[in-house]
Design brief:
Layout: H1 25-38, E1 46-50, H2 56-62, E2 67-72, H3 75-84, E3 89-92, E4 105-111, H4 120-130, E5 131-142, H5 144-147, H6 165-174, E6 178-187, H7 189-197, H8 202-212, H9 218-225, E7 232-235, E8 244-250
Length: 252
Amino acid sequence: MESESAMPQLPLTGERTVPGIVEENYWFRRHEAAYLALRPYCVDAFVLEAGCGEGYGADLLARDAVGVLGLDYDAATLRHAAKAYPGVHTARANLAALPLGTSTVDVVANFQVIEHLWDQEGFLRECLRVLRPGSRLLITTPNRITFSPGRDTPLNPFHTRELAPSEMDALLRGAGFDVEFLAGLRHGSRLGVLDAEFGGSLIDAQVAVAVSGEPWPEALREAVASVAASDFAITTDDLDSSLDIVAVAVRP
């Protein structure tokens, strides 16, 4: 397989995370941390990734799974994923109607996608349908409380509806799932140091540069490039202050 740096890259639009771009590394590693934490659920399983995007996450899960099918609606994105990650099967589909039979999937993975969907309840019912009894949905999404604080509408124009931890719990249970694990992803100790170095928030420092359109300060660029998945922690403490919600739900 080509190295990450040698792979042709998708354009960076703000809709999806793309690996191999220094200025995007913080967001890529933040998402990668959740994939790595939930990867053990995919060992020897047939995994459906509903909303595979660029494909890096599906490829990571495929290293332990029996097979991974990545679904996405964007044709160009799927062409890229199929070429860059030949170990992942891909198909174009609308997540409102998953193209699989009832009780045919061991794991559904849905990472940083549900916030993009208009019919979140309908999507979760589809996940419940395709999962075998006792099988799991792995899901992550930005925490509305910290991602779009004090707003009725999301800051990200590609998001339709963001959720707080309690809202995610209620949504999953309302769709018929048992919630096995509900946690939050947050900065670990090293990122706490970087937060302090950049005026209290490494995230805000990155956003300020992006909004200004000015060149990246070298110190910030180096700090962002140094971020690793291991710099994030997933805990069940104080969920409302977390950056992302991480949930594991079981089909009864």
